[in-house]
Amino acid sequence: MPENIDLSGIQQMAVQNTAVNSQNTAVVKPMKITITLPTNAYFVSGIRDFTLGLIRNMTEFSEQWAFRFQSVVDELCNNAIEHGSSPGEEIKITFINNPHESIEIIVQDSGTGKSKISATELDRLVKERTNPSYVHTGIRGRGLSKIVFEWTDALEFMDLPEGGLQVRIKKFLKDPQLEIEMSKVLESPAHLVLQ
Amino acid sequence: MTEANITIEDIPVTAGDLHAKLVKFQGQLDESNVDEKAKSIYQLIEQFPANLYLLFDFEELEYMNSKSIGYLTDWYGKISEGNGKIVIAKTRSNILDILQVVGLTQLINCYATLDEAKFALLQQGGEA
To answer: Do A70 and B101 touch (CB under 8 A)?
Structure first.
């Protein structure tokens, strides 16, 4: 693991994120960790290890999801390094854990890469590649459209004012669609439709 | 560079025109090393363009990224064109998960043990 990534602070940050509200009950606030990495693929293995540790120790996601987020983060970082940033620049990775609810991961590139792409273009590309009739033929192109898209509930692209691109993913602890369906059932228990 | 190794051994077969190899993967295949590591498989395909039967042992493979999967798909295409086969054995659950999400398990069969994989490989190759 690269030396500049220190996992020991995770536990301490969780403690700091526990506050007390006006009713004197503990409220766990979202935990936010931001890491800046040089644009070198060597450092991404450290972020994979960090992601695995973070998900295992600081969230309620299962072991399977810890490995899945490891892949999601790896793919986002590789894209940010390869397409969005030139050598010698930096990318920024932010983890936001919303306890009992969701995790968000945001990856920002510097916008100085040779094959820089806009948020609109990337959105169009992902839509095209996630179409069931699309056939992946090359070596590349499965990271965003298969791994990241399939394993997240929200995937958003945004052009940054400084010129970079931001990719933000969100995964809920519970399937939001399932929650909606369940609430419908409770609202109208006489009209339960099994599909 | 992240550590990864690919070692290749012969699998003894009786059919003279069939080339069967056990390919062991170790470590993590990622952006920092996969282009370099993939060369050994391409060399094998170049050496045996027809009837190449590969058993990939993934027991010690800890991680693979989307580009590694892209290479796996490419090898599958090239080897199939030459009437060869690929099977995978002893895959860790996280690797199997990623192979499933990209749809690769629909192309390449995965087996729990080396014996099962070898049997399936050579049966397909007309050996069994």
So the answer is: no
Q: Which two tokens stand for residue A7?
A: 């996992």
Enumerate residues 6+ apart whose C-beta is below 8 A from B69.
A142, B98, B99, B102, B104
Gap between the terminal Cα atoms of chain A = 48
| Both structure tokens of A48 | 């994979």
CB distance B31–A48 less than 8 Å? Answer: no
Beta-carbon separation of B31 and A136 below 8 A: no
- pLDDT tens sequence across A32-49: 999 999 998 889 999 999
Say which residues have a Cβ less than 8 Å from residue A63's Cβ, sequence separation at least 6: A56
Q: How far is the C-alpha of A97 from the C-alpha of B89, rounded, in Å?
A: 36
Question: Element (H or E) spanning A191, and its range?
Answer: none
Q: Minimal Cα distance from A42: which residue of B?
A: B1
What's the whole-model pTM score?
A: 0.85
